[in-house]
Amino acid sequence: MMHRLSLADDLAEVRSEIARLKRREAQLREAILTSPTPIPQGRWTRIEVAQTCVRVLDPALLPLEIRQDCRFLRDRITQSVRCLPVQSLASNPRPGWPIQRATAQASLH
């Protein structure tokens, strides 16, 4: 019998998996950017490293009078959804979670 996950548990698991994937992406990106030799093309993917320059406004460089002037400020309301462990279950998580995936340590060089 398969148990249906609650929205809260499903969201927490999705966020955990996204965090795992972001960590892996950062590792791969670092390996590509620091490789002493060009990364060979993969079977389905070719790597291209590009550098761009974008001009941005840095509010910290504006005079204090402007940064504190109400005419240049506005309120922004945001909503956030946090995942917090249920206290009674915090020490005994759902069986099988988090999913442990074997990571292939293929050489990138």
Polypeptide structure, described:
By secondary structure, this protein is mainly alpha-helical. It has two helices and no strands. The protein is flat, with a radius of gyration of 23 Å.
Q: How many independent structural domains?
A: 1
Which stretches are poorly predicted, pLDDT < 50 over at least 5 residues? 104-109
Broad structural category: mainly alpha
- The rounded distance between the terminal residues' Cα atoms is 46 Å
Beta-strand content: under 5%
Please provide the ordered H/E string of secondary-structure elements: HH
Oligomer: single chain
Any descriptors?
109 residues; mainly alpha; single chain; 0% strand; flat
Question: In a nutshell, what does this entry contain?
Answer:
This protein is mainly alpha-helical and 109 residues long.
Task: Note the topology.
Elements: H1 7-34, H2 64-67
